[in-house]
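Repro case for the chain-ordering regression, as requested:
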Amino acid sequence: MAQTMQFDLVSPERSLASLQAIAVQIPGADGDLTAMPDHAPTITTLRPGVLTVQGDKGSESYAVTGGFADINAQGTSVLAEKAIPVADLTAEDMDSLIAIAKEAVETAAADNKDVAAKNLADLETLRTTLNV
Amino acid sequence: MPSLKDLKNRIESVKNTRKITKAMQMVAAAKLRRAQDAAEASRPYTERFNAVLGGLAASVGGSDSAPKLLSGTGSDQTHLLVVMTAERGLCGGFNSNIAKLARLKAEELKAAGKTVKVLTVGKKGRDAIKRDLGDDFIGHVDLTEVKRVGYDNAQDIARDVLARFDADEFDVATIFFAKFVNVVTQVPTAQQIIPASFEGSEEEGTSTLYDYEPSEEAILADLLPRGVATQIFAALLENGASEQGARMSAMDNATRNAGDMIDKLTIQYNRSRQAVITSELIEIISGAEAL
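-- result from build under test --
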């Protein structure tokens, strides 16, 4: 029996997952990372991407955008502004997210433009990866 | 003295009113449960968010490089009041209580020589403070079409507020909403969102030494705007529950009053009917005696 830790995935509107996980792959802003039990306490912001949680009963994937992950001794919690199970993700969801990101790129002030553009690029990569 | 027919019509009309208020009360009760569930569901997110943000703010806050959203612009000359109310009336003192608090605060600020700007969310609050603060309105968010308040709505409001902050339109932002205590009690509350303030959440964040990716400052800069949206979202949900609670108790009162009124009118109706019968009898008897 593999070692497990408490994993929570919450969005502002509801709590999506709360379970014992063996490993969680997190799309961090500086690159993907995998959190396992006894990982060093870390806080990282998220980029739009796929979060995969491996539990006792197989693994599940969620598309997440914006927010952060808090990895500590008690477990891992991911607070995402939007989190949708990959299976439920529709093309419309993606379209609206990309539309908002595009608008943000256009309206962003000069020093924030790079951040907004990266966000858009990440979303488009996400779309291609998931093929929706 | 109204005629028997008038009284009957009157009773009928009050009965109809009672049916309507009763129905509204039950609808509000059902909606209240949903609103409370929504508020409940958002709590884990808000709590953790504030805990982490509070910890970060405590460690970075003192430095000069702290973001403006946390440290403020260095002045408090211009205040933005975000007044959040309902889109509909018939909910007791709910809207007017929030409006009153906002009006008092605005007067206080103006007396201190500050500039006040008002952003309204919800039609009823706008109407209520239009007369006093109409000149200070800078915008309005309409949620009439929104059946169920989502995080997107909060994000839209937050984006609007932040854009104005970036454009140096104001220094301090405060939101006004009603905190839900129970069905009969909702407390109008003012909460400052910019510069951000965190109460009592600092101890938790500092207990563990974290690695930060990218850097503490970068995370804080990324999270603070989201924090504004989170606070607005929490306030919207709180407001939603309060509105339904207020409507429920207001309609409960109305239903009870209608019942009392029906009882009174019924007594009056019976009395007049008896009077008519008596006078008819007297007429018949005196007619018979005259023969």
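Ordering looks correct now. The two ends of chain B are 33 Å apart (CA to CA).
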